[in-house]
Automatic annotation (TrEMBL):
One family name in Pfam for this protein: ECH_1
Protein name per its UniProtKB record: Uncharacterized protein
Species of origin: Xanthoceras sorbifolium
Family annotation (InterPro entries): ClpP/crotonase-like_dom_sf, Enoyl-CoA_hydra/iso
UniProt lineage: Eukaryota, Viridiplantae, Streptophyta, Embryophyta, Tracheophyta
Length: 244
């Protein structure tokens, strides 16, 4: 599940669990909780808001809840449940790509598969230097990738070699390497507290610009036409300046 806090103009969405070792798996209940929190943020947002998404413990998110899928009791049932998670996670990605404010993912630990995708859906990604990895496990566990996952990687990671290593080699990318690959903004943080603090500072800096949220969202959508097209996000012309 998740909780929502607010510090000044920065909203903080926190993936929560029953213990510090919780993997924050993206099952239906968690996905619904995230969507509800994002709706609350939009309802309360003003010009000059920002969003930081983080979690507690060892994991940022370890991806879809495969145990829930397998609990269906049959191969067909498991595939149906996996497809259901893929389908209901798609609106989360669409919401973040059209969100009316800057967004930051503060990765305190491992971000794997859908968790990696959740992080990439933000404008900025900050990681710990000492712990945590980015990892796309699909080739290791024998699953193909949804089309919108692939489009996100093409949109957000410019290097074809980096995409190959992440998707076809299942490379486990640590913080400093992720910075060199252009995936994350920074990894100069040695604790969960430091990466969250750095993300909050960035959020406050971006919020202080007081950009119009709709203008910000439309410009973001125009940057990533492939993934936005797959998600049905249409770029709209919008003028916030009353003198034009």
């Amino acid at each position: 599940m998740c909780t929502l806090e607010k510090n000044g103009n920065v909203f903080v969405l926190i993936l929560t669990g029953s213990s510090n070792e919780d993997e924050h798996r993206l099952g239906p209940a968690v996905i619904d909780s995230i969507m509800s929190a994002l709706s609350q943020v939009k309802a309360q947002a003003t010009s000059g808001s920002a969003l930081v998404t983080t979690s507690r413990g060892k994991f940022f998110s370890n991806g879809f809840d495969l145990a829930w899928a397998q609990a269906a009791g049959s191969r067909t049932g498991a595939r149906d449940r996996l497809r259901h998670m893929i389908d209901i996670f798609k609106p989360v990605v669409a919401e973040l790509l059209s969100f009316p404010m800057p967004t930051i993912a503060a990765i305190n630990g491992h971000a794997a598969a859908g968790g990696f995708m959740l992080a990439l859906s933000h404008d900025y990604v900050l990681m710990r230097r000492d712990k945590g990895v980015l990892y796309m496990s699909e080739v290791d566990i024998g699953l193909t990738l949804p089309d919108y996952f692939v489009a996100m990687f093409r949109s957000k990671i410019g290097s074809a070699q980096a995409r190959r290593d992440i998707l076809l080699k299942a490379a486990k990318i640590r913080g400093e390497q992720a910075v060199k690959m252009g995936i994350v903004e920074s990894a100069a943080h040695d604790s969960e507290e430091q990466v969250v603090e750095a993300s909050m500072r960035l959020g406050e800096q971006l919020a202080s610009r007081k950009w119009n949220g709709q203008v910000y969202a439309e410009i973001r959508k125009s940057l990533y036409p492939d993934i936005c097209g797959l998600l049905g996000l249409v770029v709209k012309e919008f003028v916030a300046n009353s003198k034009l």
